[in-house]
TrEMBL record:
Domain AB hydrolase-1 per the UniProt entry, residue ranges: 40-331
Organism annotation: Corynascus novoguineensis
Keyword Hydrolase appears in the UniProt entry: yes
Entry GO MF terms: hydrolase activity
Record InterPro entries: AB_hydrolase_1 (IPR000073), AB_hydrolase_fold (IPR029058), AB_hydrolase_sf (IPR050266), Epox_hydrolase-like (IPR000639)
Example of a GO cellular component annotation carried by this entry: membrane
UniProt KW keywords: Hydrolase
Keyword Endoplasmic reticulum among record annotations: no
Protein name (record): Alpha/Beta hydrolase protein
Amino acid sequence: MYYSSFTSSDNCPLAFQSSLPLPLAANTNGDPSDTPTTCILLLHGFSGSSAYFTRNAAALTSSPSHRYWVVCPDMRGHGRSGHNPSRGGYHVARLAADLRELLVHLRRQVPAAARSNLRFFPVGCSIGAAVVWTYLELFGERWRSEGGDDEGELFAGFVFVDQAPLQDRAALGLGGTWDARMAHRGCFDEASTLAAQRAWATADEGAREATHRALVSECLGYRFAPAETDKVSEGQARRDEEFFAGISAACDGVWLARLLADHTRYDHREACEAITKPLLVMAGRRSGCFSLEGMEETVRRARKRGNQDAEMMVFESGHWLFYEEPDRFNREVLGFVERCTS
């Protein structure tokens, strides 16, 4: 993977990893036919980074019949990307705008003759799914240039990983009943969100580290709901904890706390109804974040408006199922991409 970056419209540096060196070049005869026409976007979750996909990115670059371009962004405020705290930016909508600017940047890396054939497959994990839903609500599924002189297909399908379309409990029943069975298990109302914000924003180094390690216990299925069939050694468990806690520790906790409040209150249920492209929901049976019923709402909403190419599959791991069951995750993503592009 190759690290690259660009600068957003509000002068924020945004980093990403690409499986191919940029810009993508046509062959020596100037023929763009060898340029990949499918880009798989792996979008990490809250307090994560592109490093989350250490077990996935390389494996997703190719299948027996296709070669894929894989891109893993570091969202604003995460990984190697900046966040311009003096100018805000701690909103899911800003992350969605960043995604649009990333897509513009990536299209420019492709030879002009091949751009109209390029299709993206966002794989949104946790808040990454919320960013994609917000993008679709703001910008739609089709490509439109700012000048309006360029329009066409942009996405071929969507994968949403272990995220319900609403974290908060809907006390007033707006948009339909949404209670403890559906909402986030631990951050679901004003009181729980405030407690989570304090935990992430604390200046106490020990307490902050405890918050990062608690996230690991919530998101790894073998930690949240241990099973006799788990085969993770004590040493591997320690390495997993250090890996994920270290990524969280690199983030600005105060900025994350403000993003968390925005993320928790976003309601994406109606936005899911507008998705017309094929979609796949991947859910962890041992997720410490969401119930299977809550995550299935994305499929129900899409089908409500006639999208019958919407399905959910259940993994036997947790919130970070792409890390715990990488072979199956990679296989299912490639199978979905191939089905949508064949």
